[in-house]
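Practice problem: Methylmalonyl-CoA epimerase
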Amino acid sequence: MFVNLEHLGLAVQDLQSATELYTKLLGVAPYKHEHVPSEAVDTVFFRVGGAKVELLAGTSPDSAITKYLSKKGEGIHHVAFEVADIRAEMLRLREEGFVLLNDEPKLGADNKLVCFVHPKSAAGVLVELCQEILKP
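Answer key — structure tokens:
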């Protein structure tokens, strides 16, 4: 079950400049900077009401974000939704005919398990499913 809008992911060329820009725009400082090796990205998160804004910058030429930026430029990369049970939601979406980019959830930024829905099966939007990893 989808629980909440978790965040909007914005692809940026220069993370430092974008962080300064969004700090001014949103009127708040980011609460987290994180490197995600599995995705070859650096991220910065801002809290905005009940949701978040995530800035993403690729750290290698093979990064999906670097490739995205070379094709489409800066802007909205994905919309992420919090889910109660990511594996159950993945199964439900497959049964509904959606194409998932992951066979299993993987470790993402901000202490989350994540999975992506292919944009071709979601009206051109890359959708991310997120489930908080419970700490012992």
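Discussion: DSSP finds three helices and eight strands in the chain. Students who identified this feature from the tokens alone can consider the problem solved.
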